[in-house]
Each structure stands twice: as C-alpha cells, then as structure tokens.
Amino acid sequence: MRNFNKIMLVLLTLFCANAAFANDALQQALSALPKASFSEKSRLFTQIADSGADNSLEILQAIQSGDLYGRKSDGLVVFGRKADGGLALQDAVSGEDLGVIGKRKVKKITINNSLRGELKQLVAGFQLKAEEPSRRIRAAGSIVNDPSPELLPLVEKALTEETDSAVREALDVARAAIVVTTKDSDSKSRIAAISVLGEATDSNAINLVSRYTLKDGDGNYIEKDQALVEAAETALEKLTTRKSFYELMQNVFFGVSLGSVLLLTAVGLAITFGVMGVINMAHGEMIMIGAYATYTVQLLMPDLIGLSIVVAIPVAFIVSGLTGVLIERLIIRHLYGRPLETLLATFGLSLVLQQLVRSIYSPLNRSVITPDWMSGSWAVNGMLSLTWNRLYIIIFSFMVLFALIMLMKKTSFGLQMRAVTLNRKMASSMGIKTGWIDAMTFGLGSGIAGVAGVALSQLTNVGPNLGQAYIIDSFMVVVFGGVGNLFGTLFAAMSLGLANKFMEPMAGAVLAKILILVFIILFIQKWPRGLFAIKGRFIED
Amino acid sequence: MATTDTVSGTALSGPIVVKLFEEKSTRWFLLAIALLVCVMPVLNLLVPADSAFHVSNYTITLLGKYLSYALLALAVDLIWGYCGILSLGHGAFFALGGYAMGMYLMRQVGDRGVYGDPLLPDFMVFLNWQELPWFWYGFDQFWFAALMVMLVPGVLAFVFGWLAFRSRVTGVYLSIITQALTYALMLAFFRNEMGFGGNNGLTDFKDLLGFDLQSNLTRCALFVITGLILALAYIFCKWLTLSKFGRVLVAVRDAESRTRFMGYRVEHYKLFVFVASAVIAGIAGALYVPQVGIINPGEFSPINSIEIIVWVAIGGRGTLYGAVIGAFLVNYGKTYFTGAFPDLWLFLLGGLFVVTTLYLPKGVKGLLVDGKLAKYFSRSGSVSKTSTEGV
Amino acid sequence: MVTNISLQEKTVLYLNGVSKSFDGFKAINNLNMMIKPGELRAIIGPNGAGKTTMMDIITGKTRPDSGDVYFNNEVDLTRHSEAEIANMGIGRKFQKPTVVETLSVFENLELALKGKRRVWDSLFFTLSAQGRARIDDVFEIIGLGPRRSILAGALAHGEKQRLEIGMLLVQSPELLLIDEPAAGMTDEETAHLAELLKSIAGTHSVVVVEHDMEFVRSLNATVTVLHEGSVLAEGPLDKVQKNERVIEVYLGR
C-alpha cells in the first residue's frame, strides 16, 4: 500500500505541475503542526486536507491512529512504526526512510475529542471521493461502523454526486445509520432509515437497529414510539436472518477450507495407499519435509517473500518426491504384499525423519512468513469476509487434484501406473518397468504430500511434529472415501471438513473431532471399503 | 504318550497342565521371573546401600515398570503373534486400566490433597467442581477399582471388537481404526470436562490399601506382585495357545477363509482373544500406575501403542517369551539412550523398526533360538515366512 | 423371473433363479440347478462362466442379488454365514489349495474334524479315541500318513490338494464342493482321486468343478455346462459333448 503511494508520489512530482504547489501547502501545515495548540491544529488539519497532496489522507489517518510524530531535534513530521529499539521513522511528505530512533526523541501529534470528530469528517470526506468504487463502499461501511451526526452533510453531498448504484446503496445505508443514531431526527425519518438498514448487508446495522428493541426490567420496550419499535423489530428480523445466512456461508467456507487441507494431505496418501496398497506411515513426514522446504526457500530468498511461496511449490514437490523414491527403493520395495510390515517400517522411518529434522533445524517450531498477497481477507460484504490464505489454499488444492487426475488419465505414465495396479504381471510382460513405475508412483504421492506441506506452512507453525498431526486425519479421509478413488477422496475430505466445522460451534473443536473419529470407526463397520469402493469379484481378500 | 503322532510340543493327548511345563521355554521363563522376583527385593531391602550388590529403589521401580510393559507386550503378542490382529491402539486399554487404578489411588488421597477436600480430588477443586461425578463413585473401594481395571478395557474391547470383527474389518483397516480409537480417547482425556484431570492426568498418589507408595517395602511388594502376575498371565496365554483354541487362532491368522469354511465362527474367536488381550493390557496399566506414580492422557497417544508393537516385533512375535524379552530390551535401550544420548534414541528406535521388519521378521528370538532352519520348522505357533499371507 | 420347480423329490442342493452381478457384469444369470442326495456332479465351463461365483454363493461367501439356494429342501443358504453353512454339512475345497501352512498335517486334520466349533469347546478340547481313529482312516485314504508331523506349508502342491480333500473328509459333510481338484496332480494321483470321489458319492453328494476333461470322463457323472452364468447343457458327458451350443461355446463360433 505504502509502496504504491510512494510510487504515485514520485510520478506525481515528476509530471504534475500542481504537485509543487500542493507540497508547499502541505509542508507549511506540517511544519506548524508539532507546536500547534488544539484550536490551531483544527485549522492545520483542514489545510492538510485541502492541500491536494496525495499522501494527505495517509497523514490524517496516521494522526487518527496516533502514528504521526514530530521529531524533537528538528521538528520534522514523520510516520512512526514500532520497531526493535524504538520507532522506525519515515518522512511524512517524501516517504523517505529515516531509520530507527528512540521513542523519547519524537513527540506524538496529539488530538482531543473534538479534533477526533473533525478528523473523522476529513478522512471520510477523502475516502468518499476515492477513485475506485470499492474504496468508496468501504468508506461508507466504516461510517456505518461508527456513525456520527457531523458526517451527515458529507454523506448527503456524496449521494447527490454518486452515480455508481452499488456505492449509492452503501451510502444510503450510511445515511440511515447516521439518521438512526442522531438524537434529534424525527420519528418518520427514523422509521424510513430503519427500514433502509433492514435491507443492509452489514453486521453493524444489527447493533444500530436493536437499540430500538431493548426492553426494560418489566419486559416493556424502552422506546415509547410504537411505530418505531415495530419497524425496528421487522428490520431486526430481516437482518438476523441475513446474518445467519452469511454465518452459514462463513461456516461453509471454513469447512471447505479445512476440507481442502484434508484433501491436500490425503490425496498423496490416496495414491500410495489406494493405488499401490502401501501404508505409508511416514506420509505425514513427507508433508513436514515440504513445509521445511518452504521455510528453507524463504531463508534463501529473504527479499522475495512474495515469490518464495511459488518457488517453494516445485522445490517441496521435488524434495519430498525424491525422499519418497529413495524410501521406496530402499525399504518398501522389499515389503510388497506385506502391508503390516510396511506400516511398521515406514513408522520407524517417520521417527528417523522427525529426529533428523530436529537435528538439522532444531526442535523448535519455525514460522513461515505469509506473503502480502496471501494475508488479510476479502470483505465480500459487511457480513462476510474470507481470508485470502484459506481462499488460495482451496483453489490450490483443487488445482492439485485436477492436475493429478489429468496425470492419471491423460499421460502415458498414468496409464502405465494404472496398468501396474490392475495386473502387475501382465503389465510387466508388456514391457512396463514395474519397479520404475512403483518408485515413480510412490514419489508422486510423496511429492504431493510435500506440496501439501507448502500449503500447511501458511496455516500453522512448521515443526518436527507437523506431519503427525495430520496423518490420522489423512488416513480417515482415504478410508472413508474408499481406496483407489480420487473422487472419493475429494468427497470424503470435503464432507469431513464441513462436518467438523459445523459441529464445532455446538460441540467444541476437540469434541467435534472425537465425534468424527467415532463416526468413521462406526462407518467402517458398515462399509469396510469406504464410500466409493471399487466393487468386483477380483477385489477380495 | 502319543507325541509320535504330532509335532513335538503340540501333542494334546495328555493333561494340558503337563504339556504346559513340557516346553523348555516355559520352564526357563518361569525360572527367570522367579529369580528376578526373589533376588531383586532381597538385594534392595537386605543388602546395605554401600555394598556393590545393593539394588537401588530406582532400579526396583524401573524393573517393575519394565515388568508391566512386558505384561502389555504379552497381551499384544497374543493377538498379533497368534491371530494376526495388529492393534495400533492397545495403549488405550493399558491406559484405561491405569486410569481405573489411578482413580482408586486418587480417592485414597482423601483430605491429604493440597486443597484438603475430603471427597474431591485436587484437580476437581481447582476446576471449581462441587460434587464428585457419578463415574467416580465406588473407586474408593479397592475391589471395585480392581474390577474396573479389567471390566472397562474388556467392555471397550468387546464392543469395538464385536463391531469390527462381525463386519470383517481386517488387516490394515483394523490397524488404522484401532489407531483412531486410541487417538479419539487421547483427545477426550485431554479435556478437563471429562473429569479425569485433563492434561495433567492423575498424580500425587499417597498410598495403596494403606501402604505408603513411597516406602521401599511397598515398592518391592509391587515389583513382586507385577512379576507374579506376569508369570500367571504367561501361563494363561501359553495355555490358550497350546489348546485347540490356539491352533484355531493360528488358522485364522494364516488362512482366515479356510477356517470359516471349516465351520469356525472366526469373529467369535477373534473377539475372545481380543477381549482377553485387552484385559491383560488393562491389568498391566493398573500395575504400572502405582509404580510410576502418574497416569496422563499421553499414554493414549498413538505413538505409544506403536512402540508396543516394536517390542513384540524385536523380541519375535508368536512366541510370548519373545514379547517379554523385546519389552525389556527396547525399554532398557530407551532408558539408557534417552539418558546418555537423547538425540540418538529416535534414530535408534526408528532404525530398529526398519531393520527388524526388513531383516529380522522373527526378531531376536529368530536370531538366537532358530539358528537352524530345521529347529524353526519344528516349532508350533512360530511365525514362518508364509504367515504373512492373509494378514 | 423365478422358475418354480416343484420340490416333490428330495434334493440336497437346489438353486432357484440365482443371479449375481458385479458392477454390471452378470457373473451368475438366473441359474437353476438341482443336486440329488448321493449324486456325483461335474460342472464344466469356460473361464468366467461363473463356476467360482456359484461356489461362493452356495457357501455363503457372496450374497446373490436375487434367487434362493436351498439345502436339503428346507434351509435357505443365502441367509447364513460361511461358518453356519459349513456346520450344516457343506464342505468346500478351494481352487488354490488352502491349508494352514504353519500347523502340522495332523493338526490341520484335527482342526477340520467334525465336532463342536464354539470357542469354549476349543479351549477345553481333547482329541477322543474315536476322533483319532477317524483321522487315521483319512490318512489311509489320502496317503499322507508318513508326513503327518510335518508342517503343512512344507508339503508339495499335490500333497496339499490331498490334505485339503482329507480336511473335507474329516469334516464329514453331506455335500462336498470341490474346485479343480486335479490341478497340479500327477496322472496317478488324478486317477486315485477320481476313484476316491466316486467312492464318496453315494453316501455324500459331491459337486466337482473341473477343467480337465479326462478327469471329468473318469468320474462318469452327470455333467452340467455353465456359460455366462447360466446352465447351457446338462447330461452325460458324451451327450453334452455333442451338443451344438456347447461345441460353439468351447470351440468358438
């Protein structure tokens, strides 16, 4: 954000004739600011706002949040961000970094309550004039969150000028919010405002409306105006219905996002277990290796965190995949047809891998930095916002599944893999190198686990026990979905994810998990081969 | 005797008691236990502390712990070695037995707890509970707790086994759901609301049947009792496996459908042995808790259950005494290495898993006892290379 | 379409309109068959004709989609488990010889010996003199007497076949289902086996599934030809071999 502004600033100083003048007015106001009295500040704020400089909004917001300081040595006005050893300073006009300085060497630009109100108007006025409609909508939303009567003229002025219908709607709600909270507005306009709020998609509207439905100790409405109460009750009902709908959507989102994580962690297992019949207890450690690969990539390219995640995907795939190939060639190859022995050997291996990681990276958890483009959330409307990292993981897991299905169905490797699964002897006699296919298949499953590790590193800390936390869940998904069926895995992952998230509010996270485990234990009794089992007389014993 | 008809050691014409002691391994095993049980307490209680032959309290407790682990390993070998049921959740039965004993010990603390409440254990007072939950009733009586030590794991194993074996969940699937079972129980016992002390579990015990748990004499007594119960359990398991029941188990392990078509209700056999094994595991847990002084949800963790498997695998499955040897070997190794080279232990344990499954399918027992192939083929109940069929 | 055959006469096994499909593939398609007490019946058919599935249905391993299977005119086998069916008196020998390899030959027979099968009975089981005599008789028949103490896993393929048939015999079933017994046997053993089966028939009912035509001929029994899950022809071997549809199926069209 700030970078963007900086660039804009540079562009503007280069090309815009106005810029020099604007900067002069800004400079003047700023230089007076550290020593100004509260009444002078009011005038200076207006001057900053009217200067037309591009970072004046940023400066006003910094004053609001208490992040604007005057440097004691020379009175320069700066942004201050908390940093190790004090505050990291940045010139308020040029945006130039001025290094870290002790807290006592600067003085905060203070404000009082009436200045706070003025600032709010100035900032809102700025935001309501923003270029992009989405920012104007957000500005209207923040008014609903904190409505005050002095903003009313601003909103009404904006309404007369606004052409975008979505923004108009948001402004209408903002206006209604102000009207409802203004003490001296008349009953009729309040009722109208309440019904406008009733149509809003904003959680704050509920608080605004519900103040008219409050009751006293005897169960009578505090608000005496009967018509007003009725309007409020109607609006409230609409709003709560809408809110519970979006809460449902939110839950679905969380469920699908958990399901995607399960899908990512389980789909590699679905290949090694489903296609090869190999129980890989070290599958979780393949995930862990992928997560550590992400961490290592970030260490190697500290200046390109945004890119590092993208780089980490193929790196994790290759590192985990090669580990998988190695495991297959050295150990699992000797244990085909002995699933329980494979289970034990790979479990031993998982212990070794965990300890190895502990020795190399220390037993402490490492945190992987979330790049800017994945942090924060996407506010769909005032009642629903989705976090970017989960959204990306959902998309990513589906991409992985799709790529995998394509690989299985459309490539010759996939064909050979399926041939070996169906009839090893026949495939071998047709010239397919079954050993090579086994190694590659196992490598593929492990590689995908590594990719899952990249995704997980964005959700939790990276530690030696990362994989263990997911291995049982992954097995549950594969067993529930039915072995040897990727669509079954998808279905199982999603339904378990959703079930988990929907039970959580009722039962709590731990109990929800226990219930799911119990459910699967019982489910296996009835359908021992999962939901989408491959049926047939050859698939027995 | 009609032993000419059949393989040595499996003749079943004479009284079974005779047969039990006909086997050399049984005699050696019981002798070893008897020696351990007689000598160690003497060396601890009667030999002065400065003597080279003195055995410390620490060692007695440690050996007592190993003995209860050995009992647990025996339980696992009974189902895995003889019936091919690889339970990755046997730690759950062990822990349940341990909790039942822990609840009794907790009630024995009485008003000597930190909060001095005559009825409620400390953790309940801490959680602001007003009254004792119903499932804690009766645990002030030793007989009741002792019954629960067997009943709770037994009933759980019965319900779980009845469901699983009836619907023919076998092999890897069974292993995975047993793991899910113990995992679910672990999550449940971590919750404070369950009423079993949450995270911290049950600890700070004072005495057992009036005997101070800290005293040497009590510790030695517990050690001896654990040894004797191990011997009894060994005889019981040996009897099971030497009877025709044991041969049906082996048949189930190696040719499950054949056994069905011979008219045996495989699920009943599996259920019986599974429940018996769970009860033994529960008893092992109950013996473990007073010696170690704590029981917490960590005992339910899936990794603990898998570790039991490695004891049995390393000792050699399907021999019973192999499981006991394995439990002692691995746990001694664990005690030694986690003390001396803590970083090495997991490498070693993990390596043991890999090496035994790859190169020592019969474990240490296979390495030492079955040096000669002929000798190997003449044993009953031992694991041959064909035994993995149908597993 | 269930055909109703009147059950005036006594049958040991009666399959009535049995069908079973796997993922759309009809393994058994409206199969009807009757086995009379003491009868020796050979069943032949090309690969995939449904022979093994038929055995699975009779012994309770597979449930049919439709149709009934009656044992001794009264018991519907489709409602019972493998163990129950085995205890009613139906013994089965698998195509691949299946014995308990880690038990001795004697112990294999002892396990199969007719008797109570409950857990409790096994725990306190002692072999009676009568039982021992019965096992010795069977050793006479299958000729494995000298190898009784050896582990079954150490037997040769043909010996395993004989052991499995021996296990069937000590089980004393009313009906024996025998899947490809001649596979892996020497000519001499095969001839011996044919004699054995013929001698059992009469007191027991025997159903043999076989590929080897010489062996089938030597059984001198009624032959049922299965094709695509239903009966194509039935009768003496000579007659069946002249049946045009049978020739078509076996030789290709």
What is the fold's blueprint, element by element?
The complex is a heterotrimer of chains A (541), B (391) and C (253).
Chain A: H1 2-15, H2 18-32, H3 38-50, H4 56-64, E1 68-71, E2 77-83, E3 86-91, E4 97-101, E5 106-108, H5 113-128, H6 133-145, H7 152-161, H8 165-181, H9 187-198, H10 203-210, H11 226-275, H12 283-300, H13 305-330, H14 339-361, E6 377-381, E7 384-387, H15 388-410, H16 412-422, H17 424-429, H18 434-456, H19 466-481, H20 486-507, H21 509-526
Antiparallel strand pairs in A: 1-2, 1-5, 2-3, 3-4, 6-7
Chain B: H1 16-22, H2 24-45, H3 57-83, H4 90-109, H5 122-126, H6 142-166, H7 171-190, E1 202-203, E2 207-208, E3 211-212, H8 216-242, H9 244-254, H10 256-261, H11 266-292, E4 294-295, H12 302-315, H13 321-340, H14 342-359, H15 363-368, H16 373-377
Antiparallel strand pairs in B: 1-4, 2-3
Chain C: E1 13-22, E2 25-35, E3 40-44, H1 51-58, E4 66-71, E5 75-76, H2 82-88, E6 90-93, H3 105-112, H4 119-123, H5 129-142, H6 157-170, E7 175-179, H7 187-200, E8 205-209, H8 213-219, E9 222-227, E10 230-236, H9 237-242, H10 244-251
Parallel strand pairs in C: 3-8, 3-9, 6-7, 7-8
Antiparallel strand pairs in C: 1-2, 1-4, 4-5, 9-10
Explain this structure to me?
The complex is a heterotrimer of chains A (541), B (391) and C (253). The N and C termini of chain A lie far apart (61 Å). Chain A is of the alpha+beta class and 541 residues long. Helices cover 67% and strands 6% of the residues of chain A. Chain B has one domain. Chain B has 16 helices and four strands. Chain B has helices spanning 16-22, 24-45, 57-83, 90-109, 122-126, 142-166, 171-190, 216-242, 244-254, 256-261, 266-292, 302-315, 321-340, 342-359, 363-368, 373-377, and strands spanning 202-203, 207-208, 211-212, 294-295. The two termini of chain B are 35 Å apart. Chain B is mainly alpha-helical and 391 residues long. In chain B, helix 8 runs antiparallel to helix 11. In chain C, the strands form two sheets. Chain C has a six-stranded mixed sheet with strand order 6-7-8-3-9-10, sandwiched between helices. In chain C, helix 3 (105-112) packs parallel to helix 6 and helix 7 (187-200) runs parallel beside helix 8 (213-219). Chain C is globular, with a radius of gyration of 18 Å. Chain C has helices at residues 51-58, 82-88, 105-112, 119-123, 129-142, 157-170, 187-200, 213-219, 237-242, 244-251, and strands spanning 13-22, 25-35, 40-44, 66-71, 75-76, 90-93, 175-179, 205-209, 222-227, 230-236. In chain C, strand 4 (66-71) and strand 5 (75-76) form a beta hairpin. Chain C has a single domain (13-98, 157-251), classed as 3-Layer(aba) Sandwich (Rossmann fold). With 253 residues, chain C is an alpha/beta fold. Chains in contact: A-B, A-C, B-C. Chain A binds chain B through residues 279, 331, 334-335, 337-345, 347-356, 358-359, 468, 472, 475-476, 479, 510-511, 513-514, 517-518, 520-522, 524-526, 528, 541, and chain B through 86, 160, 163-164, 166-169, 171-173, 175-177, 179-181, 183-184, 187-188, 190-191, 257, 302-303, 306, 309-310, 313, 343, 346-347, 349-354, 356-358, 361, 388, 390-391.
